[in-house]
Write a structure and sequence with these properties.
Layout: H1 43-50, H2 54-57, H3 71-83, H4 89-95, H5 100-111, H6 137-146, H7 158-161, H8 181-193, H9 200-209, H10 214-224
Helix pairs in contact: 1-5, 3-4, 3-5, 6-10, 8-9, 8-10
């Protein structure tokens, strides 16, 4: 079956799960890879980059938690995915968008000590809670697509499909730019309602879409429709 004959619902299939765990299973290396040309590691910048990884690698995610893993181990894994010596569509797509400095920074963040639990504090006096600001659908869709929502385990669509929606065909990540909002929404809803099937690619999209509400899916679909 060729790509042209696949139903629209399968065009968004993204290999989020297949081989993701391999990132945490590489052999530790004693030093930074010589091929990485970067300055000193910036943990704050690394934390910002890692926010888009937390949907899979966070404490409640679907892949191993990387916090505390050796920095050189993570660097070597990301470098191998980026140059194609390790094959996995999702991780190759992610790593292909990382610069040398990005890899050094995110590895340094993950290698840091696990965050200490916050000390217990007495309850604050009860005060009226101000109404939460209403987020415009356009802004919501853009945020979810480009940044995700780590606090809700929502992975940014751009991590795999790219900020421009062009995907990475060489590693099996399809382009979604140019699809209509109705088509995208129909596909997202189909994955949201789909039961586990035990096949990596459909299950990957099912898991990625599961945290989204109806409003989230509608907002994302509207944003994707703006990508040309």
């Amino acid at each position: 079956m060729n790509r042209r004959s696949l139903p629209a619902a399968l065009l968004l299939v993204t290999p989020l799960l297949a081989g993701v765990a391999a990132l945490a299973q590489t052999t530790p290396a004693p030093t930074t890879p010589a091929t990485l040309k970067a300055g000193p590691a910036d943990l704050t910048r690394g934390e910002a980059i890692a926010a888009s990884c937390s949907g899979c690698h966070g404490p409640t995610g679907r892949a191993p938690v990387l916090k505390g893993e050796p920095a050189a181990q993570i660097q070597n894994a990301l470098l191998a995915f980026r140059n194609g010596t390790r094959r996995n569509g999702t991780m190759q797509g992610v790593a292909s968008r990382l610069s040398d400095q990005d890899i050094v920074d995110v590895a340094a963040f993950y290698a840091g000590p696990p965050a200490a639990p916050a000390p217990a504090t007495p309850p604050a006096p009860s005060t009226p809670t101000p109404a939460a600001p209403v987020t415009a659908p356009g802004a919501l869709g853009r945020t979810l697509y480009l940044e995700g929502a780590p606090s809700r385990d929502v992975l940014a669509c751009a991590v795999c499909h790219g900020e421009d929606g062009k995907g990475a065909d060489a590693v099996g990540i399809p382009a979604i730019a140019g699809l209509s909002a109705a088509s995208v929404l129909e596909t997202l809803k189909a994955y949201h309602a789909m039961p586990p099937v035990g096949i990596a690619y459909p299950d990957a999209m099912r898991i990625a879409v599961k945290p989204l509400s109806d409003a989230d899916m509608s907002a994302v679909a509207q944003f994707v429709a703006t990508l040309k």
